[in-house]
Amino acid sequence: xxxxxxxxxxxxxxxxxxxxxxxxxxxxxxxxxxxxxxxxxxxxxxxxxxxxxxxxxxxxxxxxxxxxxxxxxxxxxxxxxxxxxxxxxxxxxxxxxxxxxxxxxxxxxxxxxxxxxxxxxxxxxxxxxxxxxxxxxxxxxxxxxxxxxxxxxxxxxxxxxxxxxxxxxxxxxxxxxxxxxxxxxxxxxxxxxxxxxxxxxxxxxxxxxxxxxxxxxxxxxxxxxxxxxxxxxxxxxxxxxxxxxxxxxxxxxxxxxxxxxxxxxx
Length: 266
Fold this sequence. Notes:
This protein is of the alpha+beta class. The chain contains five helices and twelve strands.
Protein backbone atom coordinates (compact mmCIF):
# COMPACT_ATOMS: atom_id res chain seq x y z
CA UNK A 1 0.00 0.00 0.00
CA UNK A 2 1.05 3.59 -0.35
CA UNK A 3 -0.20 7.13 0.17
CA UNK A 4 -0.09 9.93 -2.39
CA UNK A 5 -1.72 13.34 -2.24
CA UNK A 6 -1.85 16.19 -4.75
CA UNK A 7 -3.33 19.66 -4.20
CA UNK A 8 -4.28 22.02 -7.03
CA UNK A 9 -4.22 25.57 -5.68
CA UNK A 10 -4.50 29.07 -7.09
CA UNK A 11 -0.74 29.42 -6.70
CA UNK A 12 0.19 26.08 -8.26
CA UNK A 13 0.48 22.40 -7.39
CA UNK A 14 1.78 20.41 -4.40
CA UNK A 15 2.44 16.67 -4.76
CA UNK A 16 3.62 14.25 -2.07
CA UNK A 17 4.17 10.48 -2.28
CA UNK A 18 5.67 7.86 -0.01
CA UNK A 19 7.78 4.98 -1.35
CA UNK A 20 6.87 1.90 0.67
CA UNK A 21 5.48 -1.27 -0.84
CA UNK A 22 4.72 -4.52 0.90
CA UNK A 23 3.41 -8.00 0.32
CA UNK A 24 3.13 -8.83 4.00
CA UNK A 25 5.22 -7.85 7.00
CA UNK A 26 8.19 -9.91 5.76
CA UNK A 27 8.25 -8.36 2.29
CA UNK A 28 8.59 -4.58 2.64
CA UNK A 29 10.49 -2.69 -0.06
CA UNK A 30 11.08 0.83 -1.32
CA UNK A 31 9.88 1.88 -4.78
CA UNK A 32 9.36 5.43 -5.96
CA UNK A 33 5.71 6.22 -6.75
CA UNK A 34 6.34 9.59 -8.45
CA UNK A 35 7.48 10.27 -12.01
CA UNK A 36 8.13 13.78 -13.34
CA UNK A 37 7.93 14.77 -17.01
CA UNK A 38 9.56 18.17 -17.43
CA UNK A 39 10.22 20.39 -20.41
CA UNK A 40 11.05 23.68 -18.64
CA UNK A 41 8.89 26.56 -19.78
CA UNK A 42 6.73 24.29 -21.93
CA UNK A 43 5.24 21.58 -19.72
CA UNK A 44 5.57 19.96 -16.31
CA UNK A 45 3.61 16.81 -15.44
CA UNK A 46 3.75 14.79 -12.22
CA UNK A 47 2.46 11.19 -12.24
CA UNK A 48 1.89 9.30 -8.98
CA UNK A 49 0.69 5.74 -8.56
CA UNK A 50 -0.91 3.41 -6.03
CA UNK A 51 -1.94 -0.22 -6.16
CA UNK A 52 -0.41 -3.45 -7.44
CA UNK A 53 3.24 -2.60 -8.11
CA UNK A 54 3.55 -4.78 -11.21
CA UNK A 55 0.49 -3.11 -12.75
CA UNK A 56 1.52 0.46 -11.92
CA UNK A 57 5.07 -0.10 -13.17
CA UNK A 58 3.73 -1.52 -16.44
CA UNK A 59 1.47 1.51 -16.93
CA UNK A 60 4.30 3.89 -16.08
CA UNK A 61 6.59 2.13 -18.55
CA UNK A 62 4.08 2.45 -21.38
CA UNK A 63 3.51 6.15 -20.64
CA UNK A 64 7.26 6.80 -20.44
CA UNK A 65 8.15 4.93 -23.63
CA UNK A 66 5.54 6.62 -25.83
CA UNK A 67 7.76 9.25 -27.39
CA UNK A 68 7.26 8.76 -31.14
CA UNK A 69 6.07 11.99 -32.85
CA UNK A 70 3.25 10.19 -34.68
CA UNK A 71 1.56 8.89 -31.51
CA UNK A 72 -0.05 10.84 -28.71
CA UNK A 73 2.14 11.06 -25.61
CA UNK A 74 2.60 13.15 -22.50
CA UNK A 75 5.36 14.97 -24.40
CA UNK A 76 3.22 16.16 -27.31
CA UNK A 77 -0.23 16.35 -25.70
CA UNK A 78 -1.74 19.78 -26.33
CA UNK A 79 -3.59 19.83 -23.00
CA UNK A 80 -3.54 18.04 -19.66
CA UNK A 81 -6.79 16.39 -20.71
CA UNK A 82 -4.99 14.82 -23.68
CA UNK A 83 -2.13 13.79 -21.39
CA UNK A 84 -4.38 12.05 -18.88
CA UNK A 85 -6.01 10.18 -21.76
CA UNK A 86 -2.56 8.75 -22.49
CA UNK A 87 -2.41 7.42 -18.93
CA UNK A 88 -5.96 6.05 -19.13
CA UNK A 89 -5.19 4.30 -22.43
CA UNK A 90 -2.08 2.74 -20.87
CA UNK A 91 -4.16 1.42 -17.97
CA UNK A 92 -6.61 -0.18 -20.42
CA UNK A 93 -3.74 -1.69 -22.40
CA UNK A 94 -2.29 -3.35 -19.31
CA UNK A 95 -5.77 -4.46 -18.25
CA UNK A 96 -6.39 -6.10 -21.65
CA UNK A 97 -3.12 -8.00 -21.35
CA UNK A 98 -3.00 -8.91 -17.64
CA UNK A 99 -6.49 -8.78 -16.11
CA UNK A 100 -7.57 -12.30 -17.07
CA UNK A 101 -4.39 -14.06 -15.83
CA UNK A 102 -4.53 -12.02 -12.61
CA UNK A 103 -8.16 -13.00 -12.06
CA UNK A 104 -7.27 -16.67 -12.57
CA UNK A 105 -4.59 -16.27 -9.90
CA UNK A 106 -7.09 -14.64 -7.53
CA UNK A 107 -5.46 -11.20 -7.81
CA UNK A 108 -7.49 -8.03 -8.28
CA UNK A 109 -6.56 -5.59 -11.03
CA UNK A 110 -5.84 -2.75 -8.63
CA UNK A 111 -4.27 0.55 -9.60
CA UNK A 112 -4.92 4.28 -9.42
CA UNK A 113 -2.98 7.33 -10.54
CA UNK A 114 -2.76 11.08 -10.03
CA UNK A 115 -1.62 13.26 -12.90
CA UNK A 116 -1.13 16.97 -12.34
CA UNK A 117 0.85 19.86 -13.73
CA UNK A 118 0.67 22.52 -16.40
CA UNK A 119 1.13 22.79 -20.13
CA UNK A 120 1.86 26.26 -21.43
CA UNK A 121 -1.29 28.07 -22.48
CA UNK A 122 -3.64 26.46 -19.96
CA UNK A 123 -4.02 26.57 -16.16
CA UNK A 124 -2.65 24.13 -13.61
CA UNK A 125 -4.80 20.99 -13.69
CA UNK A 126 -5.08 17.80 -11.64
CA UNK A 127 -6.69 14.44 -12.50
CA UNK A 128 -7.32 11.12 -10.75
CA UNK A 129 -7.25 7.99 -12.93
CA UNK A 130 -9.09 4.82 -11.89
CA UNK A 131 -8.41 1.15 -12.60
CA UNK A 132 -10.81 1.21 -15.55
CA UNK A 133 -8.80 3.97 -17.23
CA UNK A 134 -11.48 6.59 -16.65
CA UNK A 135 -10.68 9.77 -14.73
CA UNK A 136 -12.00 12.88 -13.00
CA UNK A 137 -10.59 16.39 -12.63
CA UNK A 138 -10.09 18.48 -9.49
CA UNK A 139 -12.33 21.54 -9.13
CA UNK A 140 -12.35 24.59 -6.85
CA UNK A 141 -14.86 22.73 -4.67
CA UNK A 142 -12.67 19.63 -4.53
CA UNK A 143 -9.14 20.94 -4.85
CA UNK A 144 -7.15 17.83 -3.92
CA UNK A 145 -6.98 14.09 -4.58
CA UNK A 146 -5.60 11.20 -2.54
CA UNK A 147 -4.83 7.62 -3.54
CA UNK A 148 -3.77 4.65 -1.43
CA UNK A 149 -4.20 4.86 2.34
CA UNK A 150 -6.16 8.10 2.24
CA UNK A 151 -8.33 7.94 5.36
CA UNK A 152 -5.71 8.79 7.99
CA UNK A 153 -4.49 11.96 6.30
CA UNK A 154 -7.82 13.26 5.04
CA UNK A 155 -9.16 15.10 8.16
CA UNK A 156 -6.32 17.63 8.36
CA UNK A 157 -6.57 18.43 4.64
CA UNK A 158 -10.34 18.90 4.82
CA UNK A 159 -9.94 21.39 7.67
CA UNK A 160 -7.05 23.39 6.21
CA UNK A 161 -6.83 23.38 2.41
CA UNK A 162 -8.71 25.83 0.18
CA UNK A 163 -7.83 27.06 -3.31
CA UNK A 164 -6.32 30.19 -1.71
CA UNK A 165 -3.90 28.22 0.51
CA UNK A 166 -0.28 29.13 -0.18
CA UNK A 167 2.11 26.54 -1.56
CA UNK A 168 4.22 26.57 1.62
CA UNK A 169 1.18 26.01 3.83
CA UNK A 170 -0.12 23.29 1.52
CA UNK A 171 3.24 21.51 1.63
CA UNK A 172 3.20 21.68 5.42
CA UNK A 173 -0.35 20.32 5.49
CA UNK A 174 0.57 17.50 3.10
CA UNK A 175 3.50 16.49 5.31
CA UNK A 176 1.31 16.46 8.43
CA UNK A 177 -1.22 14.39 6.51
CA UNK A 178 1.55 11.98 5.53
CA UNK A 179 2.89 11.79 9.08
CA UNK A 180 -0.58 10.93 10.40
CA UNK A 181 -0.78 8.14 7.84
CA UNK A 182 2.69 6.79 8.62
CA UNK A 183 1.91 6.77 12.34
CA UNK A 184 -1.33 4.80 11.85
CA UNK A 185 -0.37 2.44 9.02
CA UNK A 186 2.84 0.43 8.70
CA UNK A 187 2.34 0.00 4.95
CA UNK A 188 3.23 3.69 4.40
CA UNK A 189 6.72 4.98 5.09
CA UNK A 190 9.78 7.04 4.23
CA UNK A 191 11.43 8.22 2.06
CA UNK A 192 9.00 10.76 0.62
CA UNK A 193 8.98 12.71 -2.63
CA UNK A 194 7.68 16.29 -2.36
CA UNK A 195 7.25 18.37 -5.52
CA UNK A 196 6.05 21.98 -5.69
CA UNK A 197 5.07 23.61 -8.99
CA UNK A 198 4.38 27.34 -9.19
CA UNK A 199 1.67 28.51 -11.55
CA UNK A 200 2.76 29.52 -15.05
CA UNK A 201 6.39 28.44 -14.59
CA UNK A 202 5.94 24.99 -16.22
CA UNK A 203 8.90 23.60 -14.30
CA UNK A 204 9.68 22.16 -10.89
CA UNK A 205 10.00 24.91 -8.31
CA UNK A 206 11.09 22.53 -5.55
CA UNK A 207 11.73 18.78 -5.34
CA UNK A 208 12.67 17.45 -1.92
CA UNK A 209 13.65 13.89 -1.01
CA UNK A 210 12.58 13.44 2.63
CA UNK A 211 14.15 10.61 4.63
CA UNK A 212 14.86 9.91 8.29
CA UNK A 213 17.52 12.61 8.40
CA UNK A 214 15.24 15.46 7.31
CA UNK A 215 15.20 17.92 10.22
CA UNK A 216 12.11 19.85 9.11
CA UNK A 217 9.96 16.72 8.87
CA UNK A 218 11.11 15.60 12.32
CA UNK A 219 10.39 19.05 13.74
CA UNK A 220 6.84 19.37 12.43
CA UNK A 221 5.85 15.80 13.34
CA UNK A 222 7.05 16.33 16.93
CA UNK A 223 5.46 19.79 17.20
CA UNK A 224 2.21 18.54 15.68
CA UNK A 225 2.01 15.73 18.21
CA UNK A 226 2.74 18.11 21.08
CA UNK A 227 0.15 20.61 19.84
CA UNK A 228 -2.53 17.92 19.58
CA UNK A 229 -1.88 16.79 23.13
CA UNK A 230 -1.93 20.40 24.38
CA UNK A 231 -5.23 21.27 22.73
CA UNK A 232 -6.70 17.95 23.87
CA UNK A 233 -5.87 18.77 27.48
CA UNK A 234 -7.35 22.27 27.08
CA UNK A 235 -10.69 21.00 25.83
CA UNK A 236 -13.41 20.73 28.51
CA UNK A 237 -14.51 17.29 29.59
CA UNK A 238 -18.04 16.25 28.58
CA UNK A 239 -20.53 17.83 30.98
CA UNK A 240 -22.69 14.73 30.79
CA UNK A 241 -20.05 12.88 32.80
CA UNK A 242 -21.00 14.99 35.84
CA UNK A 243 -23.76 13.86 38.21
CA UNK A 244 -27.13 15.01 37.02
CA UNK A 245 -30.76 13.95 37.45
CA UNK A 246 -32.21 11.61 34.83
CA UNK A 247 -33.38 13.38 31.72
CA UNK A 248 -37.05 13.29 30.75
CA UNK A 249 -37.83 10.26 28.66
CA UNK A 250 -34.76 8.38 29.82
CA UNK A 251 -35.51 4.71 30.53
CA UNK A 252 -34.35 3.08 33.75
CA UNK A 253 -33.99 -0.65 34.43
CA UNK A 254 -37.24 -2.13 35.71
CA UNK A 255 -37.46 -2.57 39.49
CA UNK A 256 -38.03 -5.99 40.94
CA UNK A 257 -41.64 -6.36 42.14
CA UNK A 258 -42.20 -6.30 45.89
CA UNK A 259 -42.83 -9.74 47.41
CA UNK A 260 -46.52 -10.57 47.75
CA UNK A 261 -47.97 -10.63 51.28
CA UNK A 262 -49.88 -13.62 52.47
CA UNK A 263 -53.13 -12.52 54.07
CA UNK A 264 -55.46 -14.64 56.14
CA UNK A 265 -59.08 -13.95 56.82
CA UNK A 266 -60.31 -13.92 60.31
